[in-house]
Amino acid sequence: MGTNYYVHTPVCPNACEHCSASEELHLGKASVGWRFLFRAEPDWLREKAYSLWLERARSGEIRDEYGQPTTLDDLLALIAQKQTGRSHAVDDPEMRRVHGRALYDSLRSSDFVCDGYDFCDRSFS
């Protein structure tokens, strides 16, 4: 079970009636037992993903997939709490010991770590 978080960007002041909706951008997902999985864009430099993610997160109102608003500070506190969970992007020797295999059959090339956080540059939910 997990919860996705999104930032809702403000409507463009020059928007026509056809494009006047705010944009919903996926920030990532908090799942039980796992580290927070940050959503990166494929064109982001991997070594700058966290700073680019923060810039995105600051661009509008943050809400979870159920429409509940949260602050960036509260989301960052949740992320910090989840840092002891299993990693999406790093092979876990304990998982190999217990299950005889890696967490995934093979780590995905779209999963990576930046500044100690797990990122994925593909769409996921």
In short:
This protein is α+β, with helices and mostly antiparallel strands and 125 residues long. It is built from three helices and seven strands.
* Percent helix range: 10-25%
Q: Could you give the order of strands across the largest sheet? A: 5-4-1-2-3-7-6
- Rg, Å, rounded: 16 Å
Outline the low-pLDDT stretches.
Answer: 95-106
Q: Give the integer mean of the pLDDT values.
A: 84
Describe the main β-sheet briefly: 7 strands, mixed
Question: What can you see in these coordinates?
Answer:
This protein is α+β, with helices and mostly antiparallel strands and 125 residues long. A 7-stranded mixed β-sheet has the order 5-4-1-2-3-7-6. The protein has helices spanning 49-57, 72-81, 93-99, and strands at residues 2-8, 24-31, 37-39, 61-64, 69-70, 111-114, 117-120. Strand 4 and strand 5 (69-70) form a beta hairpin. The N and C termini lie close together (11 Å). The protein has one domain (2-120). The protein is globular, with a radius of gyration of 16 Å. Helices cover 21% and strands 26% of the residues. The protein has 3 helices and 7 strands, in the order E-E-E-H-E-E-H-H-E-E. Residues 95-106 have low confidence and may be disordered. The longest helix is centred in the middle third of the chain and has 10 residues, at 72-81.
